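NADP-dependent glyceraldehyde-3-phosphate dehydrogenase, Gossypium hirsutum. Tokens?
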Amino acid sequence: MEMVCSSITHLGSGKSHLQGSRCQSSIHPLDSLTSKSKEEVNKLIEEAKTAQKSWAKTPLWKRAELLHKAAALLKEHKVPIAECLVKEIAKPAKDAATEAVRSGDLVSYCAEEGVRVLGEGKFMVSDSFPGNERTKYCLTAKIPLGVILAIPPFNYPVNLAVSKIAPALIAGNSIVLKPPTQGAVAALHMVHCFHLAGFPKGLISCVTGRGSEIGDFLTMHPMVNCISFTGGDTGIAISKKAGMIPLQMELGGKDACIILDDADLDLAAANIVKGGFSYSGQRCTAVKVVLVMESVANALVEKVKAKVAKLTVGLPEDDSDITPVVTESSANFIEGLVVDAKQKGATFCQEYRREGNLIWPLLLDNVRPDMRIAWEEPFGPVLPVIRITSVEEGIHHCNASNFGLQGCVFTRDISKAILISDAMETGTVQINSAPARGPDHFPFQGLKDSGIGSQGITNSINMMTKIKTTVINLPTPSYTMG
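Tokens:
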């Protein structure tokens, strides 16, 4: 069966780069992309609630077995999934294939880790607390929350969906997935792999449609027991409306890269280009601002400029390094940041160039704190460089941001690196490497406006469960035995 994966029209249109492109697949009908009404959403959630009650009674080994089948199917279908990632969200072909395989690996690892984490309980006795006799035995176990609402972003619509789906399922929950508007077809391909694996009907549902139309109805639904969201400012609004349910949110970042004067500048430059321009900078863990000591700034900028000049720009099918950003509004926002920086005196290391949604990579030197690009997240291939005169100045800029997702430090002195890491108000600090979400079993979390809770496979499993306690009460002995 054929599926249509359309996203953008053509370079120079200001809308997208492909229209009516077709990716071949035999795994899901296109009519699943119709927008759901509130009545249809309500029915899906009710079905998810019913399916979850039976799924929670399914043996843990059986849940893991089905997840392993789904993982194998994801890898089998990596080509059609990757093709849709290319056509829907302009992801370079190589990166698209990697996302599909990485997602399968995540599901397999989650199956194994879930058996380990959920297979263990805890036993306590009452006389371990002062004033108590050994008359109470306490048994604890992890049980599922119920219905998990998963909302992944456009930039990783498969990987960040399975990072929510797999922990939920192994823990005994059901899933209602709200895929992003861009990336929905690839997400539906992925979900159908789970259906092919044999998961029960109603356990994994997809709600397609615009968040502006059904978002509040979904996130405030009384049968939703947990929300796992990855995206932008929308998450803050969700958190204010969701009520007393567990929330797992990753809301973006302004990831700072601090370069000390003793850093390996070749290593730093390579990571800045990789971290700042991979997938056209459309990553929450992209390098978003470079804070470099003045003494090495000229040398670093020249090395970065040389590497930026080698980046290829074009269509994702050609595996170009820089491809169109996801929407015209995104491109317009990025351009607004560039115009502001130009007006306020930033140094352009390349000529600014844009055709439609395609923006050529741009390094901005001599950026000052009064420029918007110093603080706002472009989510595009534009990277500001701020020259600093002390490490404290760099740390201050990092911590003054309302974001706190990740950061990185480049230095040959591990003692300095640890001290700077301790001082940076971010969820993760990478030493001598660009920010990165993976490997997927590592903890992943943000501070301040960058999120609530911690992700990573084990953390997600624990977050999507609650503790159930059973206490066995024994009679108070009237005499001493023995």
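The two ends are 75 Å apart (CA to CA).
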